[in-house]
């Protein structure tokens, strides 16, 4: 499978590329010298993310990024640190040991989890473990803990079809002919989304295989800067495009049988799926950032199965 479709599309920093002052501060806080660093595959961030082994045998997972290099990285890492620090201890999330911010570089250190992302393409057993764990995650994070997140219905990006209807993109008809033909209807469905997005569940907001770790007995959810508060079933619906892209099965059957969606009003689910599909379609049509040259391909690869699922539903 193309590395892109496994969620690997960025160019991550190596440990030895971090400024010496940052490496020294990390070692000081960890109480030992780093003797090995394994960069974590997956994701689209250019920041450092990797497993560090210390001279004394200790292990830790560290993320480090510079706001001067990419402004959004500093904002995202600060936000993630404040969110994860406020999660309940029993939540299936690696424990945040500490974090620091020198005004430019932001560094987070987590307990290393003895697990790995799911193998791609999806195996049925792994997929079912993750889908079951998602039900447990919702139970653990409802009501939402008191962490600094926005409301799902207020999120930018989930108005992609309405944006395209107001300002048509010249490449839409070639890239997504059915969407172009049905754009007004899709924008109408999407307009219903804010009225069904509300809820009191803390949502991950960016579930994909590369944000999951499978251990022997747990599924862990990592990378939380996109967390929001909203309707309990949103993480499942927003997970489907990447799941289907990576061979994860029948999206319609999952929606019909999963405990989070089986009893939900079908029109509400449709509005949610439209909002998610509109996000991937509209984002895929934008120019790619210089540091993430394949991000639009990755978004298109998710938009296509999302649109297929939506087309069969409408």
Automatic annotation (TrEMBL):
Organism annotation: Actinocatenispora sera
Residue spans crossing the bilayer: none
Taxonomic superkingdom: Bacteria
SUPFAM superfamilies noted in UniProt: Protein kinase-like (PK-like)
Signal peptide range: none
Domain annotation Aminoglycoside phosphotransferase: ranges: 58-245
Pfam families per record: APH
Gene3D superfamilies with a match to the protein in the record: 3.90.1200.10, Phosphorylase Kinase, domain 1 (3.30.200.20)
Record protein name field: Aminoglycoside phosphotransferase domain-containing protein
